[in-house]
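Bench log, entry 3. Co-assembly request; chain sequences pasted below exactly as received.
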Amino acid sequence: MTETHRPTENSAGTSIKPPMTQAAAEAPMRPNRYLTSADLLLRYAMVLVLVVLTIIAESFYHGFFHFANLNIAIDQAVPVGIIAVGMTFVIIGGGFDLSVGSTYAGAGVIFASVSNHMPLWVAFICTVIGGLVAGGVNAVIITKLNVNTFIATLASSSVILGAAYVYAPSGSVSATASGFAALGTDEWGGIWIATYTLVAVLVVGGVALSRTPYGRSVYAIGGNKEAARLCGMRVKMIQGSTFLISGACAAVAGVITASQTGVGSATIGTDTALDVITVVIIGGTSLLGGEGAMWRTFVGILIWGTLTNIFGTLAISSSVQLLITGGVLVFAVSMDSLSRRLRH
Amino acid sequence: MRSLLRRQAWVASDRGRQHDVTGEGAALYGVGAEVGPAVRTEDLTKTYGSVRALKSVSMSVPAGSVHALVGENGAGKSTMLGILAGRTTPSGGRIEIYGSEPRYGDPRAARRAGVVAIYQELTIVPALSAEANVFLPNPVVRGGMLSSQRMRARYVELCEQVGVKAVSAGTPAGHLSVAEQQLLEILRALVSDTRIILFDEPTASLAVPERRSLLTLIRDLRERGVTIIFVSHNLDEVLEIADDVTVFRNGHLVISDRRPQFTKPSLVRAMIGNKDNRVLAEMIEDSSGPAAATRRPARPAPTSSSTAPPVLAVSGLTVPGAVEGVELEIHAGEILGIGGLVGSGRTTVLRSMSGLEPRARGRMWLDGREVSWPHTVRQALRYGIALVPEDRKAQGLVLSMSAMENIAMSDYRRVARAGFVTDRMVERATQELSRTFGLQEGRLRHQASKLSGGNQQKLLIARWQHRLPRVLLADEPTRGIDVGVKTEVLSTLESMVAKGLALVLVSSELEEVTAVAHRVLVLSEGAHVGTLIPSGDNRISVTDILHLAFRSGSDQQALSRSLQSGA
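Structure output for the full assembly:
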């Protein structure tokens, strides 16, 4: 991203090419060993799945590719998508965050109730801080008490949801502030603001993950904690920070959902954590940490959005929905393990 | 029970034959000719994608012999072992085990044919007792229930048979040493009707006395008619124990002959083929033990040492239960070797100095200024102390990331511009290093897991060259890598030292330590027993280290055995 703005770097880049080709010539023995077609196929298998799904969708109901339909499909995937960006950091860093559902729901409650007394932007900031606090609690439990991420976030999930119910015993808070629905329902150029938010979060997350020392440290820690520690990385701090990111993303998603529905409801997050993990894994990010990418999460979001759209449009029963989603997930995970076996 | 009787029957008959044998290697062929070879392969081929790991290999292993497979990494010896063990399916060719063809690629079929493989990664279940591990695949059952009494009796009997002291049967295997765990695997092999044992690097993780007893055990097994096929990087061992040696290179069988036909230089030559002669010569001399030490001129201690304070000085380093009272100092441009056997505390000393031992106590001076003892890696790195860890894969590399990433990760700030890093920046930052370290630049983008052991080691060293520490602690930098690359790795380290790095080197290959170190600190059972400094023309020899290491210990027997192996 930075090179495109710097011609000097580009020229330096091209000057590097000759020695590279020379090095390639030094190893003529096995030129294709590292990038076989099977490897490529497995690596981009989920992109193919996405393409196939869209073709299936279009053939079942013409109009899938219509702007209005795509707009809705993506809009529906926004909350899950935003949380998935945070989850991508957590999973690549070698963890899991099961508390995102509760944080997501709790954030809606905070946002709705604070906005009833304060300006919207204050409510927004309070909500994000709430998300960061939830993530911070996870981080402390995981890095200071050395609790497994799965268990720690399972426990904190319950605590956060409990707190939300203590705060709003009825389980929901109706918002009365004017403009409360703006983030969820306003459009700009025919596309919902929420969609722009998702794109912005994806881009910022993607750049942070792949183009900063921080992001690369996340990969290193997820790939081999001990090696990362021996390189002088702040392993605990960085792993903890992925939970902060995840908490903040869940909070933003909660704000958007509250804004879309006009209600802060504590009941919306029951399936969210697993949906989000599904999205991240469907894209091809490895469950084991250390491998994956933000574009993969983007592909996962699109697959998830397409599936949701197909289910909704064709009024597919929820039992069949479960079967299909499960099947796609199994496919994604088996691709991951196949390509792993091929490469190691 | 029936199988046991059968085994003992043929063991007895074979032993009978062995008794009138005097000249080991030659006469064994006679035995082999009578009963036919234990293993015979014909045009065995194995391809992985476009890579041909084995190319039409035909070999024969006489029954009741010890057969060594040697070659550089990737030469095909491990593939051969895998095919015999039924772990790998050959792409073509034929195998016969005692005259009959087993089903290929089926470990159970190989087992039924009497073949057991013992790999470097042992298949011990740590939580189960020693005894339970031995009977894991073939439990002694009476009336559908495990009979622990009978198993206990069999266990003791087995230990007596192979002439080893019985490891306490009830101890969880996880509490045993690697050598003891390996012994359990051998016992496990003997429980079933095993005629052929395959070993992959059996002595790689053993201390010297344990190596000796394993070699003795292998000889005993041969006496009993068991055929042993083993892969080893340790050529001294190969020449000591094997009846026959087969050399692989690039998937080809280069030569297969009786042991007396080989010398160490001829083995090395066969293994590496026509490489640069200079490298070859250096390698043979380097690897031929302490005798080679006299070849090189004695290294003068770095001139700066007399005037400047040492870069790093340590005194009274103590880690409870591991090391006590270690003192050392090291100057810029100097290599300090740490000699001692496995378990002497060598690794703990390095780990303490790199901030990995929270319980370490001691005093540390940098350039003569006292600093607090580093208890975190980051603190040690701030002092300029970096560690190349012993276990490349578990502690060193992030295998899922690219080679260049593994180099750059020691310091991303050197790579980043305005807080951003791209692949191209990483590549550019590491290209120069890869060139000086003899890594092909084209491989920089490859996953670290795909590189050979030698190249992986180079990555780890290049990683620190990227960050430029003042003191580098290298733990076993040449373990498990090709003979040729060993010299490369050592000379890379030497060139870094020539530019002012201070290096602390730990290696199980004491010859390596004596060949490159200016001074050698000797540890024995966690105690600092002395420091060897070459005086005049006298080089430090492996014997010196072992003398010092054993002087404090009471194990004189171990001393004499080790000296035999060392000299």
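The first strand of chain A starts at residue 172 and ends at 174. DSSP finds 16 helices and four strands in chain A.
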